[in-house]
C-alpha cells in the first residue's frame, strides 16, 4: 500500500519491557501512557495526511478508544467529539485465531520481550471489537496471502 508502518512494541517504555520479560502481565496503568504515545504518532501522521498502519495489541475497547481519541477518551469514556481535536478514523483489524496457533508463532519469535507464558493473560484481557467500533475480524487460520487480501480489500473499501 505504500503506507507508513509502526510496530507498537517498539514504543513500549523500558519498564514495560522488563515487566514482560519477567513474565508479569501489563495492566491498564502500564498500557495507557504507551497507548497515548501511539495516539500521538497516529495524530501526527494523520495531520501530515500520511496513511499509516500500526501493529498493536489493543486488547480492550478502552485501549482502542485511547488510540482513536487520546487521553481524553479515558476521562469521557468516549472517543473525542468533532471539534478542535477530532477523533482519528481508524479501522481495527482483529486477527483472530486459536491459542495454539498463536502460541506456535510466538515460540518462533526470537529476541522479543514478551514470553509465551504471557499469552494466556492476553486472552484473559481481550475484549474483541464489536459494533459500533470500526473493525474487521480476520482469521489467522487462513493462508497469509488471503489474510493480506482481506485486510487490503477492507482498507480500500474505506
UniProtKB/TrEMBL annotation:
One of its GO terms (cellular component) is cytoplasm. It catalyses: D-gluconate + ATP = 6-phospho-D-gluconate + ADP + H(+). Keywords: ATP-binding, Kinase, Nucleotide-binding, Transferase. GO terms for molecular function: ATP binding; gluconokinase activity. It is an enzyme of class 2 (transferase). Belongs to the gluconokinase GntK/GntV family. This is Gluconokinase. It comes from Calcarius ornatus. The gene is Idnk.
